[in-house]
Amino acid sequence: MSVTLKDVAALAGVSRSAVSRTFTEGASVSAKTRSKVEKAARELGYSPNALASSLTTGRTKLIGLISNNFHNPIFLEVFDQFTRALQERGLRPLIVNLTDETEPANSVRMLRQYSVDAVIVASSTLRPSFAKAFHDAGVPVVHTFGRSATSPEVHVVGIDNVECGRMAARELVARGYASVGYLGGPQDATSSLDRQRGFIEEMANHPQIPVNHSFAGAYSFEAGRAEMLRLLAGDPAQAYFCGDDILSIGALSALADHGLKPGTDIGIIGLNDMEMSRWEYINLTTIHQPIKQIITSSVDLVEEMLKTPDRYPEARIFPCRVVERGTLRPRP
Asked: Per residue in 309-329, pLDDT tens?
């Protein structure tokens, strides 16, 4: 039979309320009583019931961790780091898949059923209205990988996607490519549009270099491969900025089908610096997104909101950098 709070109280020689206070964060209990209760709990193998505790404190410590991009391997890394970071702070992640969800109100209703204390929207492709819906419903929310803004309506942690587009364009120009292209993710995703915008703005400074742009149906290997195969059937550019590493890896597969060597025949630069991009047979030149720092900062904000729910929304934007590997020609 499971050990109960009553059993611990009997062995420790204290009241049940004293045991309850010992395991309630912030509750008042003397050092002597705490020592006796903890000793008894260890001997009996007792662990406090988190759900029962939530009835007393009004806090479940459940944090909704929602996304819609589960087919992209980068999110295995993202969720691994998020779940560990939350658990290390004594918080409990509740992962929710919104791949087929289009109505923000349905997401709010779903997460409220679980009495989450806060929500992290971990997606660059979910519309900003999803995070805003939680904010408007009074649920503390952080939009991780969200769109940067000078006056955000909700807390945003991520990168400047427009600047990443400019960075990729500068890199291709510096390597002497005579024609370039942008291969983005879904056309309705703010990340795709912002990366395209930065790319085109920077290339406008070099009118002698032709620029084309296109979009894949998703941030996925299959979509990147299909779009590059379509481009190769026409008049492809000498180099492409693919707006995500998984799109880049799909594009590399398409080049291989045509017997083309990346970096020699056609250049490819990605974005994210996911683990797969470092694999020897991929060796992708890419723009590094500081995912670990973004996740740590997002969890910091969650903790701060739990203490001060009405804190003013802020945007925490992290710089990126180019990681040199083997899918672009060397700089002259």
From this structure: 888 899 999 999 999 999 999
Looking at residue 153, its amino acid is E
The structure tokens listed for 108 are 């709010």
Q: What is the pLDDT of residues 106-133, one digit of tens each?
A: 888 888 888 899 999 998 888 888 899 9
108: closest CA among 158, 48, 154, 42? 154
DSSP helix/strand/coil, 256: helix
Angstrom distance (rounded) from CA 139 to CA 150? 22
C-alpha torsion angle, residues 270, 276, 281, 283 (rounded to 10): 40
Distance CA 85, CA 292 (A): 10
Is pLDDT at 69 greater than 80 in this prediction? no
Q: In which band, very low, low, confident or very high, does the pLDDT at 188 lie, cut at 50, 70 and 90?
A: confident
* Residue 123 and residue 156 in contact, taking contact as beta carbons nearer than 8 Å: no
Structure tokens given for 172: 């291709």
Q: How far is CA 74 from CA 4, 69, 80, 230, in A?
A: 42, 9, 10, 25
Cβ within 8 Å of residue 294, ≥6 positions away: 144, 145, 157, 158, 159, 318
Residue 52's pLDDT band (cuts 50, 70, 90): low
SS (H, E, C) 129-180: HHHHHHHHCCCCEEEECCCCCCCCCCEEEEECHHHHHHHHHHHHHHCCCCCE
Structure tokens at 30: 């003397």
Longest CA–CA span in the chain (Å) reads 85
State the angle between helix axes of 31-44 and 5-12 in degrees (0 to 180), rounded to the nearest 10.
Answer: 120
pTM over 0.70: yes
